Amino acid sequence: QIKAKETRKLMKKLLLVFRKHMSNYVQLLEKEHMIVLIPFLTMMYQMLQNTTRNIFMIYFDPVFKRNAQWSINKQPPSLGEAKDSIDKVNDFYNFWYDFKKLERVLLS
C-alpha cells in the first residue's frame, strides 16, 4: 500500500513531467499556428488593400471627371488604376494640385 506522502511525491513528479511535455506541445502548437496564420493574415491584408483601392477608384473616378468640367485644360488625366506607373500618378496629382478653373458667369 502506498502512503499519502509517497503518493504526493509521485503525483508531483508526474505533474512536472506532464508540464514539461505540455509546454513543449503548446510551443509546437504556437509555432504551427503562426506558420499557418502569417500567410493567411498576409493574404487577407493584400485582399483588403486591393479591395480598398478598387472601391476608391469606383467611387471617386466619376467625382474627378465631374470636377474636371471646370478645368481650363480640357484633357485632364484620369484617376487610372492602382497598377499605373508612378509617372501617370504624378501627372494626375500635379494636375489637381495646380488646378486652374474656368470662371463662368451664370446668367439667369
Please describe the topology of this protein:
Elements: H1 4-68, H2 86-97
Detailed description of the structure:
It contains 2 helices and no strands. The chain is 71% helix and 0% strand. It is an all-alpha fold. The chain starts with a helix and ends in an 11-residue tail after the last helix. It is rod-shaped, with a radius of gyration of 33 Å. The mean pLDDT is 77.
Care to give the gist of this entry?
By secondary structure, this protein is mainly alpha-helical. 71% of the residues lie in helices and 0% in strands.
Considering the chains and any ligands shown, give keywords for the structure:
mainly alpha, 71% helix, 0% strand, 108 residues, 2 helices
How far the N terminus sits from the C terminus, by CA atoms, comes to 110 Å
Rough outline:
rod-shaped
Number of helix segments?
Answer: 2
**What would the average pLDDT be, to the nearest integer?**
77
